[in-house]
Amino acid sequence: MDMRTYLVIDLKSFYASVECVERKLDPFKVDLVVADIKRNKGAICLAISPSMKEKGIKNRCRIYEIPKNVKPIIAKPRMKKYIEYSALIYGIYLDYVAKEDIHVYSIDEAFLDVTSYLKMYNMDVITLAKTIISDIKKRTGITATCGIGTNMYLAKIALDILAKHNKDYIGYLDEKLYKELLWDHTPLTDFWQIGRGIQNRLYKHHIKTMREIANCNPKILYKEFGIEAEYLIDHANGMEPMTIKEIKAYKPKSTSISNSQILFRNYNEKEARIIITEMIDNLVLELVKRNLYVNNVSIYISLSNSDHITFSVNVNSSNSYNTILNKVLNEYDYLVESNIIRKIGISFNDLNNKKYEQLDLFNNIDNNDYTIEKTMYNIKSKYGKNSILRCISLDENATMMIRNNYIGGHNAK
Q: How far apart are CA 186 and CA 205, in angstroms?
């Protein structure tokens, strides 16, 4: 396998930094949080400025958890603005590498394969990284950090564990350095793709470091994690065979689309029924947009007492609003009684682009449902999501009109 060189660039405290830049403030000197105060003091801070992190405040804290002696500026989330900045920074990446060599990992993080560009620019990788993050700072005011590695995993680890401790915000790892510097690093949750659940399962086998994973009998790991053990073993040895080219070429065998809502307050079963109706409406419009059909719909309902209800229905390759809604609500009405509901998730599974219908002698085939959905989609695309709504969305308990102004569940403007 050819040796490659990757950068992974992260935009430091991105949402908070954008809000500071827009106010002509220094995020390293000003206390600022991005949160929707209208959701009360229990609202989660989407981001906090670096100056608050230096005070030991956690990034995803709730407003009421901020120490009393810290009086931050509270900025309402503006997702559209953050997307504009992210797009501008993506354009800066394109000034240095081709889009085929960029993998956007999230709104504030991207991998760049710079292997073939170092010779072209006559630069070493550190110089190229500094040039790019300097350009981002100059053109947007946003400070970036960078991890550099001989594969995507090492670049990500260099970013997450090393870069933040260096004055230039750049970290570098190859397999040798990885073993020298991080084989005995703890906790394991500092490493990419190891959460508390995986860490606790490793602890059962007295495994607490990457060195111990690498030296463990593979049979133990495969018995505990199945095929996922392969990734753990590779990563413990600083190996990652996946490339950006392979990521871009990947096509999943099956697809799904989903939507979830944390409700503004406790909803009873009748009120939550309205939300489910609206969510089905939105997902069906997404099917129409993509010219897809769905075979299975699964529902997850989280209750205020921390219990949950799950169920699924088969809809036989449909994109009919009425067909899907009726089957979901029939099951919902049967299973959900007198419960206080806080969160709803709906997933359309096993999507395809071919419609199969079971014909019989007693029903006419008609495309009225599809025609209506297509017309609604065309109107919403041209005039906005709230330009045409079903009557149920005018109910005082409905949320679609409000959420249509959100991006990613947060205020857009």
A: 16
| Domain 257-411, CATH number (from 3.40.1010.10, 3.30.1200.10, 2.60.40.2550, 3.30.1490.100) | 3.30.1490.100
Q: Are 112 and 104 in contact (CB under 8 A)?
A: no
Count of all residues that appear for the chain in the document? 413
- Name the percent of the chain in helix, strand, coil, to the closest 5: 45, 20, 35
Predicted confidence (pLDDT) at residue 62 exceeds the cutoff of 80: yes
Residue ranges per structural domain of the chain: 6-13+80-179, 14-76, 186-248, 257-411
Question: Please, what's the b/e burial string for 266-298 (b: 16 or more CB within 10 A of its CB; e: otherwise)?
Answer: ebebebbbbbbbbbbbbbbbbbbeeebbbbbbb
pLDDT band at 362 (very low <50, low <70, confident <90, very high): low
Q: 186-248 architecture in CATH?
A: Orthogonal Bundle (1.10)
Half-sphere exposure of 227 (CA within 13 A, CB side): 0
Report the DSSP pairing between strands 102-106 and 257-267. Answer: unpaired
What is the reported pTM? Answer: 0.76
For the chain, the C-alpha Rg in angstroms (whole number) is: 25
In this structure, are residues 332 and 268 in contact, taking their beta carbons and an 8 Å threshold? no
Mean pLDDT over residues 57-75, rounded? 91
Q: Does domain 14-76 have CATH number 3.40.50.300?
A: no
The architecture CATH gives domain 6-13+80-179 = 2-Layer Sandwich (3.30)
Beta 32-34 vs 73-75: how paired, if at all?
Answer: parallel
Helices (H) and strands (E) in the chain, counts: 16, 14
Instruction: Give burial (CB, 10 Å; 0-12/13-18/19+) of 207.
Output: buried
Looking up tokens 């354009």 gives 91
Give the residue, 160 or 253, on which the prediction is more confident. 160
CA–CA separation, 299 vs 86, rounded Å?
Answer: 33
> b/e string for 46-83 if b means 16 or more Cβ within 10 A?
bbbbbbbbeeebeeebebeebeeeeebebbebbbebbe
Residues 276-321 have pLDDT tens digits of 999 999 999 999 888 889 999 999 999 888 788 999 999 888 888 9
Average pLDDT of the residues of the chain: 89
- In 3D space, the residue among 254, 262, 281 whose CA is nearest the CA of residue 393 turns out to be 281
**Does residue 323 surpass a pLDDT of 80?**
yes
Residue 307: its pLDDT value, please? 85
Residue type, 400: M
